[in-house]
Specification:
mainly beta, 3-stranded antiparallel sheet, 3 helices, 12 strands, 12% helix, globular
């Protein structure tokens, strides 16, 4: 059997080599951190998927457009979640952007208990993803890349289609609660929503 010697480092007599610092332990977020980050208002979405013909999904505030060419989006998913591993297996997902009057839908999919689709009128899209009723927008995508970032996965999705929904004010989350915004007219040069 052949073995490979590992390089060694020696120190002059009477001296001590510096010891490598152990990696710092991840500390839980403090109330101050949570209050500070809560100052950033976000929209609210529900990410849905279909695993073995069963619909799954979870409420997600960490959603963003990444690129227009090619069209890419991202969302962040907690490692402890039950729905995300099943969506990952399915390979496709839909991001349902919620309207101001859909706080109950956000709470339903944000809960770790109960059957999220029970009594809910949802439809299966032609991209094989669950579409929730009344959404402002549905983004249908397939998983392109997944990056581990702390206690979350950053999921990059390649957009298959954009499906505009109804015109309404968005559901917003700020400082630990839902907030209302005043209606604002679209700028004159804002493009009209059209199905992809």
């Amino acid at each position: 059997m052949t073995t490979t010697a590992q390089p060694t480092t020696t120190a002059p007599p009477g001296t001590t080599l510096p010891q490598a610092e152990p990696p710092p332990l991840a500390a839980p977020p403090t109330p101050r951190q949570m209050r500070a980050l809560g100052a950033f208002a976000t929209g609210v979405t529900v990410v849905t998927g279909l695993d073995a013909a069963e619909p799954v999904g979870f409420t997600c505030q960490s959603f963003a457009s990444v690129s227009l060419a090619p069209p890419l989006v991202l969302f962040c998913a907690d490692h402890r979640g039950r729905s995300w591993p099943r969506i990952r297996v399915a390979g496709r997902f839909a991001v349902n952007v919620l309207a101001e009057d859909q706080a109950e839908l956000s709470a339903r999919f944000g809960s770790r208990t109960g059957r999220k689709y029970e009594g809910l009128c949802w439809e299966l899209s032609r991209w094989g993803t669950p579409s929730l009723p009344g959404a402002l927008l549905r983004v249908h995508a397939e998983i392109a890349d997944v990056y581990v970032a702390g206690d979350h996965d950053v999921v990059i999705g390649r957009v298959l289609a954009l499906e505009p929904g109804r015109e309404a004010r968005p559901l917003l989350y700020l400082r630990g609660q839902f907030v209302r915004t005043a209606a604002a007219p679209a700028p004159p040069n804002w493009p009209q929503s059209r199905p992809a």
